[in-house]
Amino acid sequence: MARQASVGGDVAATEAQAHWPQWLTALALLGPGVAGDALAERAPVQAQVASTLLVYEDAQPGQPRMHVVAPVVSVQLPLGAQWSMDGSAVADSISGASPAYHDQRIEPVDDFRRAYTFSATHYGDAGTQTLGVSDSEESDYQSRGLHGSASWSTPGRNTTYTLGAAISQDRVHDASSGRLWGHKWVRDWRLGVTQVWSPVDVLQLTLGLSSTHGYQSDPYKLDDQRPTRRHAQSLHAAWNHRDLTHQITWRQSARLYRDDWGVVSLTLDAEQVFELTPSAQFTLGWRYYSQTAADFYVPASGVSSPFLPAPPAGALWHSWDQRLSAFGSLGLRLKWTLRLDEDVDLSAKVEVFEQRGSWALRRGSAGLLPLQGRSLQLGMTRRF
């Protein structure tokens, strides 16, 4: 079953859901040390293998929804003094149930996805250059992409500029008959600047642009008809501060997003990283997300009926997808990291969230049940 998002399929087909298991995380601009090395990207000297197991599930009152199990393996290999190669593989097992419209007519879901990424990075005296490819395939959805980025720093390495671009082509088809529903092309651009403001403060500002053309409707939603073009802009700001006295790192970020479908969203994220011992860390974080409804979203009537609420007369585009409604969500996360020795790290992360129409900053969509979710992530990193 095709999903416009990968892990956690049903809960995040658009910018709509900020809490599914590919969260927009606060950027790790500041590590355990002082900020002086935060921008100095250097080629790795050790090979690294990381394995992660992600388990995610969500539910509405009285009805379990999606369940996802996703093991991930990533590898980083140094190639001499100025090059490295990175690769990752993930296998999503998706099951559970998904509504055909709003939060009604829950239907079973069962799918499996394989995805791979590969990239090569060159480390120069003043910056880096990266070029990579990606491939993702489900029973009825295929996506292939190409991405590249470059960064360059000022002589004192206090300021780093980044430029990135990505392009992908997706194919959506019927799993049983093979009938093609449509193609989709996505282009993304990113421009950013990272500034060491003081020995213990790092600031970052990133502008993102996205353009999508082609088939964007959800064939598994009743009578879902969406525009074939979508243009979006985003602005992400982050501030990381290091408290040397108490050995605490503070990370704050905010992201504004808007597109020509009428969706405007705000994401606020904050976390504290506590160094319990030289080899153990504990992280406490929270996230708030709010969005407006898409212009063509048809709101729930609030009355139990076997029929869909009627769209406006003459409407060319219309969708009853809950993910395009106006809502707000609040999430809490806890993470533990333990360094066993110089070569092995272990981590565990737990996150919970709840989504409600009444929690939107502006007027939220009425007539929808709340959505609750939780995830567990276990990881191990081994250096050689």
As an assembly, this protein is single chain
Instruction: Work out the radius of gyration.
Output: 22 Å
Helix content percent band: under 10%
Q: How many helices in DSSP terms?
A: 0
Strand content: over 45%
Describe, in plain words, how this protein is organized in 3D.
The structure is a single chain. With 384 residues, the protein is mainly β. The two termini are 39 Å apart. A 16-stranded antiparallel barrel has the order 1-2-3-4-5-6-7-8-9-10-11-12-13-14-15-16. Strand 12 and strand 13 form a beta hairpin. The chain contains no helices and 16 strands.
Explain the layout of strands and helices.
Blueprint: E1 48-60, E2 63-79, E3 83-101, E4 104-123, E5 127-137, E6 141-153, E7 159-173, E8 180-198, E9 201-214, E10 229-243, E11 248-259, E12 264-277, E13 280-291, E14 327-339, E15 344-356, E16 371-383
Antiparallel strand pairs: 1-2, 1-16, 2-3, 3-4, 4-5, 5-6, 6-7, 7-8, 8-9, 9-10, 10-11, 11-12, 12-13, 13-14, 14-15, 15-16
Task: Provide a brief overview of the structure.
The chain contains no helices and 16 strands. The protein has strands spanning 48-60, 63-79, 83-101, 104-123, 127-137, 141-153, 159-173, 180-198, 201-214, 229-243, 248-259, 264-277, 280-291, 327-339, 344-356, 371-383.
Keywords:
single chain, mainly beta, 16-stranded antiparallel barrel, 384 residues, 61% strand, 16 strands
